[in-house]
Design goal:
globular, two-stranded antiparallel sheet, Rossmann fold
Length: 334
């Protein structure tokens, strides 16, 4: 059954359901492939490594080119109900710009949580998947994937043999993936020590949220490494009404000074950063995806490739003055 037919069935059976329920369900469906760039130079490969310690498979999709030397690696963590298939526009662009992009799929909070679930229960299934266990599993997934990449980088028979510069790694994520990104960067929790994956050099959080229990200042004070936050003025949470666009902006405000950046798209919503199609694609500002690509590439080049010109561009009004962003958008750094 196609995505379009699935959505039509959902609408016919659940006309009386709230729009937010449709919104989340549709977003979690596999993407239709919104990336329209020329990707003929980019290869992609899927792998299914198994973490034997946790008896857990962590599927990944890797975007790469036939580069002649090892290049930095950028990891991506999907949002609630997503998969490694999502956000191909970023995977393709990052690969073409000289990075290996590794998109991680997290079982327990991926698209499978809605598999074989009655339509009327899919929204609840998604909410239930946003659990503490899922959050902790995701953090361990990231470290396991890096372990696996290190092994593959030394395995002659593997397609990624000696292609990766694993001394320079970035981590990005959207929504629940941004929760993962902040957690891996060292965000404090009420219970237990902070998780701190020291092999990662820089972080990009799209639609971040400060979490609950501790104040943003207390939970985020220990994040010293470079961090880029992206959100929008309409970036509400589809599952938690307390996470408003204003709350998402508290993340940047609470981060300590030094190599921190903040982008707020005027009119940007929660799906501005995704490849979601159909109803969620309507009204998407055509300037947003190109801006996300440009700014993220500058960020990775600055902090994974030691590109001083890219860092100078980030720490200036250039994103506003050169047309990358629109006049009503917000660009800040500290």
């Amino acid at each position: 059954m196609t995505i379009v037919n699935t959505r039509r069935k959902w609408m016919l059976v659940n006309r009386r359901n709230c729009l937010s329920t449709l919104f989340v369900f549709a977003a979690a469906l596999p993407c239709s492939g919104a990336d329209t760039q020329n990707t003929e130079l980019v290869s992609k490969a899927d792998f299914e490594p198994v973490d034997k310690k946790r008896d857990r498979t962590v599927p990944i999709r890797v975007y790469f080119t036939d580069q002649k030397k090892a290049v930095p690696v950028v990891l991506f963590s999907h949002g609630l109900g997503g998969s490694r298939d999502g956000n191909p526009y970023l995977g393709n662009r990052w690969a073409k710009e000289g990075f290996i992009a590794v998109f991680i799929q997290h079982h327990g909070s991926d698209r499978d949580v809605m598999k074989d679930v009655p339509l009327r229960e899919k929204f609840s299934a998604l909410k239930d998947a946003a659990s503490l266990k899922s959050s902790l599993d995701r953090l361990s997934d990231v470290s396991f994937v890096i372990d696996q990449l290190e092994q593959w980088n030394q395995t002659k028979e593997h397609p990624l043999f000696q292609k990766m510069d694993l001394q320079h790694i970035g981590l990005s994520g959207h929504s629940f993936g941004a929760v993962t990104t902040l957690g891996v960067a060292g965000q404090r929790r009420i219970i237990g020590p902070a998780f701190d994956e020291k092999r990662i050099d820089a972080f990009l959080a799209m639609s971040p949220q400060p979490g609950k229990g501790l104040s943003p200042e207390k939970s985020l004070a220990g994040i010293e490494r470079p961090m880029l936050c992206m959100t929008g003025t309409n970036d509400n949470s589809p599952i938690d009404p307390t996470v408003t666009p204003e709350v998402r902006q508290l993340v940047y405000k609470a981060l300590p000074d030094g190599d921190k950046y903040h982008l707020v798209f005027d009119g940007g919503n929660h799906y501005t950063f995704s490849d979601a199609a159909g109803i969620l694609r309507r009204g998407r500002n055509p300037n947003h995806h190109p801006a996300i690509e440009t700014i993220s590439v500058k960020f990775w080049k600055a902090y994974l490739s030691d590109d001083k010109a890219a860092k100078k561009w980030l720490q200036s009004e250039s994103p506003m003055s050169d047309g990358t962003l629109q006049p009503a958008d917000v660009w800040r750094w500290k």
